[in-house]
Design brief:
The chain has three helices and four strands; from the N terminus they run αβββαβα. The chain has 124 residues and is of the alpha+beta class.
């Protein structure tokens, strides 16, 4: 399991998050997608911008408690993998599937890492 760097910030700052709807739409429209057993991932590069991540958990995941749990778990996985993402404008969207709130964390982390590697987001 990848451990987060203790020197890294404990949260994603606004500069490293997708915060506007058009940013998500651009990722869906222009990015490549890959589906795993726990997550659907979209990724594309936007030169001249910082690398950013966005996390989505729709009502298909469950009630508000389950959706928030899914987002927290995906944020933690992304936080652990983020030091391996180049800062050259990679835009990543992770969409939680219904198993995210209950799946084993190691399995979730492996699935997200595999998807990000396949999409060319992670430095190996």
């Amino acid at each position: 399991m990848v451990r987060p760097d203790p020197e890294a910030p404990a949260r994603f700052g606004r500069a490293n998050r997708l915060v506007r709807g058009w940013q998500y739409q651009r990722a869906f429209r222009e990015g490549k997608s890959e589906r795993g057993e726990c997550v659907v991932a979209y990724a594309h590069a936007v030169p001249g911008e910082p690398s950013r991540i966005g996390i989505i958990a729709s009502k298909k995941v469950g009630n508000a408690v389950q959706r928030n749990r899914a987002k927290r778990r995906l944020r933690e996985v992304a936080r652990a993998l983020w030091p391996r993402v180049p800062a050259d404008g990679r835009q990543v969207v992770l969409i939680a599937l219904s198993v995210v709130p209950t799946v084993d964390f190691v399995r979730l982390e492996a699935d997200v890492a595999r998807l990000m590697r396949n999409l060319g987001v992670l430095d190996s």
